[in-house]
Design goal:
With 283 residues, this protein is mainly alpha-helical. The chain has one domain: MetI-like fold (Orthogonal Bundle). It has eleven helices and two strands; from the N terminus they run ααββααααααααα. Helix 7 packs antiparallel against helix 8. The protein is globular, with a radius of gyration of 23 Å.
Length: 283
């Protein structure tokens, strides 16, 4: 009997290892291929220059800056609202049919195709509110798209904090909000950061929402305000890959490599912050 259990355990571990390997290997192959094809395009001029000659020459600095602006704008709108909504659902809302319906709606919203969010942003922010095709419209659209991820992951992180922490804090005279702010939020911070980064990474790599609301085909200057349109790496990569004839493959893969590095850089920063928060966690 014990031998059968050991055999089953080894088979289970072997199957899990095989599935993990089959998942990771294609990702590694794709990244290595992009590095080998686009690494030669990476230079100071490529990263800091403006595109010219029909975008077949020059750099991608406007697209890099535009992606940073859109990601920052998305964070400004979505993170405070998403975390606040998660705090309410996890700490204040009663467990009834209304809150259960809200949670189901949030889960369903995370599965809506990004092009639908783009059309919604076009109708609401660009046309109805008259923000125009701008960084503001694109950031608000991306914020709505990332909210379900941030709310769901943040709520789960808050619920994972042991209830004993809240009980002890309140028994010592702290108010409910003081308990949440000083005890629960710091302990849930690693999980909240994970959700925020997952949402922002999706926003940084999306093309459809910004295509309708804020992305420009080509701009010879950097945006001066939130009401200006901007270039962005995902849309720029789409344009040079499909709309520009005789585009050098090295520039296409170089742009893809910069986009991957941008997302991985966000992951690295989040990993450092999350590791430090976990080191201070008391459970």
């Amino acid at each position: 009997m014990k031998l059968n259990r050991n055999l089953s355990q080894r088979l289970g571990f072997g199957l899990i290892t095989l599935m993990a390997t089959l998942t990771v290997i294609p990702i590694i192959v794709v990244v290595i291929y992009i590095i080998t094809q686009g690494g030669g395009a990476i230079s100071l001029e490529f990263l800091s220059g403006f595109p010219h000659d029909g975008m077949r020459q020059g750099g991608i600095m406007p697209a890099i800056i535009g992606t940073f602006y859109l990601t920052l704008g998305t964070a400004v709108f979505s993170v405070p609202l998403g975390v606040a909504a998660a705090i309410y659902l996890a700490e204040y809302a009663a467990d009834n049919w209304l809150t259960r319906t809200i949670r189901i709606a949030i889960i369903n919203l995370s599965g809506i195709p990004s092009v639908v969010y783009g059309l919604f942003g076009l109708g609401l922010f660009v046309l109805f509110l008259k923000f125009g095709t701008s960084i503001l419209s694109a950031s608000l659209t991306l914020s709505i798209m990332t909210l379900p991820v941030i709310i769901s992951t943040s709520e789960e992180a808050l619920r994972a904090v042991p209830q004993a922490f809240r009980t002890v804090s309140i028994s010592l005279g702290a108010t409910r909000w003081q308990t949440i702010r000083r005890i629960v939020l710091p302990e849930a911070l690693p999980g909240i950061i994970t959700g925020v980064i997952l949402g922002l990474e999706r926003a940084a790599g999306e093309t459809a929402p910004i295509l309708f609301t804020g992305a420009a085909f080509f701009l010879p200057r950097l945006p001066n305000s939130v009401f200006d349109a901007t270039m962005a790496l995902p849309y720029h990569l789409f344009v040079i890959s499909t709309q520009v004839p005789e585009m050098p493959f090295q520039i296409q893969y170089g742009t893809a490599l910069v986009l991957i590095a941008f997302v991985l850089g966000m992951n690295l920063i989040a990993t450092v912050v999350r590791s430090r928060a976990r080191a201070r966690r008391q459970w």
